[in-house]
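Appendix B. One record, verbatim.
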Amino acid sequence: MYLAVSGNIGSGKSTLTQMLSERYGLRPVYEPYAENPYLEDFYRDMRRYSFHSQVYFLSRRLEQHLNLVTGARYVIQDRTVFEDANIFARNLYQQGNMEERDWQTYWGLYQGILPALRVPDLLIHIGASLPTLRRRISLRGRTYEQAIPDAYLSGLNGLYDGWISAFDACPVVRVDGDRLDFVHDPRAFEWVCERVAAQGFGLPLLR
């Protein structure tokens, strides 16, 4: 059983990953943002550090997949390598913050490792508008995130909308992050769990 949680910066995916891991007894695998030595530099100067930051994330995602996800019986992942490539790196390229040759090099690396990656059994996607993302980013108080441009977040949202609409590698549960506050409202979290169960992932775990 491999679940994955996708969503923009500040959508609540790390929190939902933790809640679902506790509910279903899954091993959580979190995004390695805190370990990225380029991240603060990247948010100060996206164009200069975009390639460095994205290649770091790509290498760590591959390490996570090979060591923690592939072969694991019960696991849940906070953001996948598929998003890193199709959403975050692509957004940087489309907005002019990654040069053409860097994008082509990055995309070639991604395509090279793609056959080795396990696909989730279920993807849970949290969609949230810019005001919601801004509010949650402010509340969690990571200094380097406060100056993220609105255009950057909006670009990510646009790519997420297209990507999740076309995603057919596994079933998808879509969560309205503007309406459902699964952190503070137990009924909202139960709504998510009901949708997970409707895909055949219940307690006790049968898949």
